[in-house]
Structure to design on (258 residues):
């Protein structure tokens, strides 16, 4: 699937993931985790890679078998260094009244694998994987 | 497009916000507007009812973080109620139960405001 970098497309992205995962019999709970992780990844791309520029492309590819559901998300926005995003500290956010890094923290908690590849000036790619063995 | 809306009911000093649908980065500004207009009207005792909320992402959670300090500085609070297990689990994963009071029912949240006020008046 290819969509423009607009928050209004998040629901279409969630629907796309839902249909594909449901068709192969992934459980409702696991689908919920995957959908939220993909939403967070795409929201980060819209906000940080494209900085709300509405006509960037987000490419979403799925690969799955009985054991693993993998989502590859590619953008051509600003490059991204995941190591520079600190673990969220809610107490600190409370004091500063701003929230950041929560999305990435959620992705890591909800998925079994989160892997970033960033080629500056070319593309960013995030791979999200969920093991299905015990989950289906 | 994701559907989301809020409605507000007043009960004395307390304002109750009802959330419905999907709260994500696209719809979060709508909830921000709801909070802003309550705060503009000096309504700081806020109960948020999640009963009809089907989905929340971190963009939605961020809205609660954005307003909590202002509300508490004015002797108010944002109390959360009636979450589905799915929505509660996301709040829980991010440690929100440490910062917010979360109740099973709207009545409990409203009563907590009333009890707190009674204690203050004694």
């Amino acid at each position: 699937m290819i969509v423009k970098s607009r928050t209004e497309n998040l629901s279409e992205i969630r629907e796309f993931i839902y249909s594909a995962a449901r068709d192969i019999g992934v459980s409702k709970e696991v689908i919920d985790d995957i959908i939220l992780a993909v939403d967070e990844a795409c929201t980060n791309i819209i906000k940080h890679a494209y900085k709300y520029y509405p006509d960037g492309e987000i490419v979403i590819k799925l690969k799955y078998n009985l054991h693993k559901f993998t989502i590859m998300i590619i953008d051509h926005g600003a490059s991204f260094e995941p190591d520079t995003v600190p673990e969220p500290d809610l107490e600190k956010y409370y004091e500063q009244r701003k929230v950041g890094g929560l999305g990435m923290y959620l992705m890591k908690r909800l998925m079994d694998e989160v892997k970033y590849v960033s080629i500056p000036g070319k593309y960013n790619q995030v791979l999200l994987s969920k093991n299905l063995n015990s989950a289906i | 497009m994701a559907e989301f809306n809020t409605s507000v009911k007043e009960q004395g000093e307390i304002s109750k916000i009802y959330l419905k649908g999907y709260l994500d980065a696209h719809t979060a500004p709508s909830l921000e507007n709801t909070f802003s207009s309550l705060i503009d009207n000096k309504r700081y005792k806020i109960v948020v009812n999640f009963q009809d909320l089907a989905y929340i992402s971190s963009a939605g959670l961020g809205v609660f973080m954005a307003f909590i300090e202002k509300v508490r500085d004015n002797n108010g609070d944002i109390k959360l109620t009636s979450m589905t297990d799915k929505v509660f689990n996301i709040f829980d994963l991010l440690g929100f139960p440490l910062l917010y009071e979360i109740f099973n029912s709207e009545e409990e949240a409203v009563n907590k405001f009333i009890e707190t006020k009674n204690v203050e008046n004694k």
In short: Strands of chain B lie at 4-11, 14-23, 45-56, 77-81, 102-103. Chain B has one domain: 4-121. The domain at 4-121 of chain B is CATH 3.30.750.24 (Transcription Regulator spoIIAA).
